[in-house]
Amino acid sequence: MKRFWTEVTVDADRVVRLDDRPVRTPGRVPLALPTTALAEAVADEWRSVAETIDPRAMPLTGLANAAIDRIAADAAPFAEGLARYAESDLLCYRTDSPPELIERQDRVWNPLLDWARDRYDIHFTLVTGIMHRPPPDATVARLAQAVEALDPFRLAALSPVVTITGSLVLALALLEGAADADAVWTAAHVDEDFQAELWGEDYLAVEAREGKRREFDAAVRFLKALG
Q: Which ranges constitute the DSSP H helices of 34-180?
């Protein structure tokens, strides 16, 4: 679609408008945002359009569309899908060698698990190797409750964080301010960074990682704008 508007504004209902027309989601619902900060951030994406709309350059708009069209009508299945990550959280799966990687995992991951234990009154089962061992049922249920309590916009933003990091604990730590974005990103890539230090980086892997980081950073901006 070519740019057809001159001015982008946010009205009193926090709906982004192109001249006198409201922006609509793919489901044809007005793009109304829950906070002024998020509405202005989304509006800035539309202001930045040059000649042609490129959805890849408008990640906040995409997350808002998902919240309104996909999640708001029935958030329970979406929340349930995110909560399943508690059953195989990245932070619970540890290496048995070499000692340097064992130490790094312990140093970076253990404080985050300690935070989650204290915050949610839960326990974790640490696993060495690749064989799946589920955490206690009470842990899964408690973390599921935390996710299910979130509104559609926070669920939309949390989704890429969970899927990119492979960790519900990391996503909740970011959401609640227990760890900042860089700390969460570093924790999610402990193993990958260690291997790169040993063997060097593959340019295709670097390119893929940069794409994931852009998606991750957009979700972080979205969360911050929600307040």
A: 36-47, 59-65, 75-83, 99-120, 137-148, 152-165, 168-175
